[in-house]
Design goal:
The chain is an alpha/beta fold. The protein has a domain at about 10-105 and about 175-265: 3-Layer(aba) Sandwich (Rossmann fold). About 50% of the residues lie in helices and about 10% in strands. The protein has helices at about 15-35, 50-60, 80-90, 100-105, 110-120, 165-195, 205-210, 230-240, 245, 260-265, 270-280, 285-295, 300-320, and strands spanning about 40-45, 65-70, 95-100, 130-135, 150-155, 160-165, 195-200. α5 (about 110-120) packs antiparallel against α6.
């Protein structure tokens, strides 16, 4: 943890956006040219706030001619993502690459594997049905063991929800994670073609709490906003003058066919409260100080801190390089 402040309040996340932008842009220039020795940046864009801020900072650092944005729709994601991603590229003066990943996902059995797993819980699930998974329970008001539920919706609009057995959950997530992994494969294909580096777009909540897929959206050569909390990314979006519709976007996974927030899928708290809680935790603020800033009770903050601790362990495990039986030297970097 960082050193505790003498006091902690809700203004802790106020950001000097001009200074933060200069720092990130300078870092992008230095890392790409000197550390990675690449000619530019590749990143996937969806019109979401994180990828939009990252693309904007990359263009400001390197110029639009050295930033390759990629739109990667598939048959289940919202058409709004492609529309907003295109809007962003037009705003930045960048010509995007369009890579529809439905074919590769079908070839690898993404949809079929997932649907077969769902049918173990809902045998009637089939064409025209929609689905999502989410965390069960209320983090704030009760001690809990995290488990996931599966919600399906028939073509007639009737919804059913059931607790997911572990094997069903693992099969659904493994199949769905192919979406993130295929997108990253596409990004690295373009990066190799252009001698560019791949830019990852996680904010601090995602990076520190493990909300990413190993070998998928967790994989990148540089992650320039991993130190910024989600609410600070929104502050940066306003400072950078991103289109209003992009600034108004709520965080969403855009992975399952039913609407799903990041809160219900993983975080269990609204991002603004979790931002402040994670900041308080990292600065060593007491549960009493955090409770006052968050307008929560001390027992509620205790549960939030406990959840943060568990998720940070998960993130550290996912981010770790492969284990070796013995250390192997690969030489000094020039």
């Amino acid at each position: 943890m960082l050193n505790a402040l003498s006091s902690f309040d809700s203004k802790a996340l106020d950001l000097d956006c001009a200074s933060a932008a200069r720092e990130i842009e300078d870092a992008i220039q230095r890392i790409v040219a000197h550390d990675l020795r690449r000619q530019g940046i590749v990143l996937g864009v969806s019109g979401g706030i994180d990828s939009s801020v990252c693309a904007t900072l990359a263009v400001r650092a390197l110029g639009p001619e050295r930033v390759q944005c990629i739109l990667m729709p598939e048959k289940e994601n919202s058409p709004k993502s492609t529309r907003l991603g295109t809007l962003l590229c037009e705003h930045l003066g960048v010509t995007p690459a369009m890579e529809n990943i439905t074919g590769p996902l079908e070839a690898l059995g993404c949809y079929e594997r997932r649907d077969n797993a769902i049918r173990r819980l809902f045998p009637e699930f089939g064409p025209g049905w929609k689905q999502k998974i989410g965390l069960a329970g209320n983090l704030l008001d009760a001690d809990r063991v995290n488990y996931f539920t599966l919600t399906v919706e028939s073509p007639e609009g009737e919804r059913q929800t059931s607790r997911m057995p572990v094997d069903v959950y693992l099969d659904v997530v493994a199949a769905t994670n192919l979406k993130q992994r295929i997108r990253k494969t596409v990004e690295y294909t373009h990066a190799d073609r252009l001698n560019y580096a791949v830019l990852g777009t996680p904010n601090r909540l995602e990076y520190e709490l493990g909300f990413f897929v190993r070998g998928g959206d967790g994989l990148a050569d540089l992650k320039p906003i991993a130190h910024l909390y989600k609410s600070q990314v929104y502050q940066m979006a306003a400072y950078l003058g991103l289109p209003a519709e992009i600034q108004a976007q709520s965080p969403s996974t855009d992975t399952y066919t039913l609407p799903q927030s990041q809160e219900e899928f993983y975080y269990a708290l609204p991002y603004d409260k979790l931002d402040l809680a994670l900041c308080a935790y990292g600065r060593g603020a007491s549960e009493e100080e955090a409770a006052a800033a968050l307008n929560l009770t001390v027992p509620q903050v205790h549960r939030v801190y406990k959840d943060i601790t568990a998720k940070r362990r998960t993130s550290a495990r996912i981010l770790r390089d492969a284990h070796l039986v013995q250390p192997v030297s690969v030489g000094d970097e020039a």
